Amino acid sequence: MRISGAVLVLMLVAGCQIPPGEVVEEKVAEIQADVEAIKVLFDHNASVINAGDLDGWISQFTEDVIFMAPNSEVLEGKEAGRAYAQPWYEQLNMEFEHSVDEIEVHGDWAFARWSYVGRYTPKAGGEIIHAKGKEIWILKRQSDGSWKCSHIIFNSDLPLSDS
Fold it and tell me: Kind and range of the H or E element at 87?
């Protein structure tokens, strides 16, 4: 006697004694926990930028991260990202705020879309630079369950002459 795969799966599910609603609720709770963890990562991002902590900022990214910055070629890897950001950290005191616009989690991958505003004061003196823009991060769950950014795309909302 042959049992089709679909019938076998139905027999196994029926014997599991786990109400389908509980499985859905558990999955929703897991996704919500991931969303909250990603929001914490963005709060960390703002705090390390505001503290002038380049090492803290770069720690949020995977080793093979892809940076897609405005007016720049694609940068690959943490060290390329560090080289790109280092002048900002060396030359500016940064005040940065963000708002999360969207987070979607799909297994071990997620994407987040968020907006930022900033005030950057040159350490050597001079006019304050105002910033306003948006970013998309593609995030990857790490083996310890934490999230890191594997791809970052960002650009300014301000006209080129103002940014």
Answer: helix 78-91
Determine how many CB atoms are found less than 10 A away from the CB of residue 70.
11
Length of the chain: 163
First to last CA, the chain: 72
Q: Report if pTM > 0.85.
A: no
Single out the residue of 147, 67, 64, 62 nearest to residue 104, CA to CA: 147
Burial class of 27 by CB neighbour count within 10 A (0 to 12, 13 to 18, 19+): exposed
3-state DSSP helix/strand/coil % of the chain, to nearest 5: 40, 40, 25
Q: Tokens representing 155?
A: 């650009």
Q: What is the pLDDT of residues 91-133, one digit of tens each?
A: 999 999 999 999 999 999 999 999 999 999 999 999 999 999 9
| AA identity, residue 156 | S
Give how far Cα 102 sits from Cα of 37, 82, 86, 155, Å.
14, 26, 28, 17
Cα–Cα distance list, 114 to 46, 49, 84, 152 (Å): 12, 16, 21, 11
